[in-house]
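note to self: the first set is below, dont mix up w the second
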Amino acid sequence: MTTASDDETTADPIGLPEQEQRFRAPVRFGNIPVESAPKGWDPKNPGFRNLYPVINLPTQIVDRVSFGAPDLEPNRLIWGDNLHVMRQLPSESVDLIYIDPPFFSNRTYNVIWGDQNEERSFSDIWEGGLDGYLVWLNARLYEMKRILKQTGSIYVHCDWHASHYIKVEMDKIFGYENFKNEVIWHYGLGGFNVKRWFPRKHDVLFYYAKSWPNHHNKIRGRVSKWMEAKYSLEDEQGRYFVQDGTKYYLKGGKPIDSVWDNDELIEHTMSQTSSERVGYPTQKPEAVIARIVEASSDVGDVVLDAFCGGGGGRRCSSAIGTPMDHDRSVARGRRCHCGTVEERRRHPRAWLRSAA
């Protein structure tokens, strides 16, 4: 068992961004109340500690794991409530956060687990409805902002059930000006048997920076056959074409924009027969999260996945492909563990598969 030091558990709360101009009614409307603070916020007791008191619980190291890089220090597998664990992490210690929290789907998910065919379930039904869900999420987003470095970024994975409300709450916590992208992950599997609305075929990733400038790598997709035909010449520097006596070299495929279609991720789609599947109905493809890691982290950076998503367990956290040498925390009894960016980039397939 391990506990955090007093310095970590008593970290000073951080304030909310000053953005009064974004949350006020025009003068001609009179004294109309405008909610500028996130739901559940108490200015007299910041950090949502009025609703979620600080509990200095020990966190249990369940295991130490490695993903194909024996020269690196093994990672820690932690069991605990993610809010309490994050409160024990030092401020400004993480470069990138990706979370796949419950979606407010109002469903209970069941899965058959292990060799004994044990039935396990997790609930996405919330006491207090949408407001209760947002307060619960806000308390965790607040701690994520605290532990992010000034150059850090966060991606929040959600869908139509609550995405519009989450965006408003994130504006209040991280700042409207720090919003970078609404990334659309468009997939094509299932869900077409509807008659009264268009099939719902995408998830949303909200991408925020802690402050400007944040760390971001420009990434490119695959080289298309059209591009291969255009850049038909090749020398020691790579493929190129010549125009007006000037060589133009192929830098890669088309730059990735804010719509991620499975045409780019086709070999990583989560069909029922996918080799990535571990049985959880809300598991996300490895390629989606690997793209986030590539865009917003470098070798040696620290990345936190505070939920491990609906996939849970070792396979999902290894599929994240995240660089991380802090404890990774979990919610609702879901386990996960961490990997370093060196492992992810030097041994990409070995450590993705080693925890299956």
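second set (the one i keep forgetting abt)
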Amino acid sequence: MKVLSTSRLRTLAFAPVVVVACSLVTAPAEPDPPLLCGDGVVEAAEQCDDGNTVDTDACRTACVAAECGDGVVHKGKEGCDDGNASDTDECLTTCVSATCGDGIVQAEVEECDDGNASDTDECLTTCVSATCGDGIVQ
């Protein structure tokens, strides 16, 4: 058996220690490319993607299909679209512009609207309530 001197032991005690560890490393998977609404390709949660920036056609710029009540007038399909659930304003919930004679009273615009073409009842065709002296015999 070989005996080391004390000076040699001191050198070994302070010698740097190198540890080599091996492990199986795999390359990380490539992330899926981000979905891009407006690229003309319908992907994942998109209802449509026509690839344009026109918000009034059949496909909105948010890649959802245009529909009555979304607050945007769909050209050629809707007369109006105010996006609310009120039939007493200028736009009905069917996306048709309210008019006298449609059977729905427009708040602060019409006194009445019975939806008929008769002036011999309580509501005239001008959406004004019939009264004595209006020149029409009821």
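remember for set 2: The chain has one helix and no strands.
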